Amino acid sequence: MASYITKAGSAAMKAVEVVRTKAIPPAVEYYKATMAKNAEYVVKDPAAVDKLGRQLVFSNLARRVPRPASPARAAGRFV
């Protein structure tokens, strides 16, 4: 049983090392490049950051045009 745990631990460490050397560096480079390309859209003011979520929701709600009421709906008869 101990040899199985040792082998499994060794395989897990090899997998972690592969991820650390092969997967993480390209992901970090992609992140840095994307953030550098879009730096103009980063909001640095903490007060403005706190309002962003609400601004997104309510701006999108304001774009929605309410449906005009039909005569049947206005009279209380739903067809």
Could you please describe the fold and organization of this structure?
The protein has 79 residues and is mainly α. The protein has one domain (2-66). Helices cover 73% and strands 0% of the residues. The protein is built from three helices and no strands. The chain has helices spanning 2-37, 46-63, 71-74. The N and C termini lie far apart (72 Å). The model has no long low-confidence stretch (mean pLDDT 87).
Question: Which features would summarize this protein structure in a list?
Answer:
single chain; mainly alpha; 73% helix
Following the backbone from N to C, one meets helices and strands in this order, namely HHH
Radius of gyration: 27 Å
Count the strands?
Answer: 0
Spans of at least 5 consecutive residues with low confidence: none
Number of domains: 1
What kind of sheet is the major sheet?
A: none
Mean pLDDT: 87
Distinct helical segment count: 3
- The assigned structural class equals mainly alpha
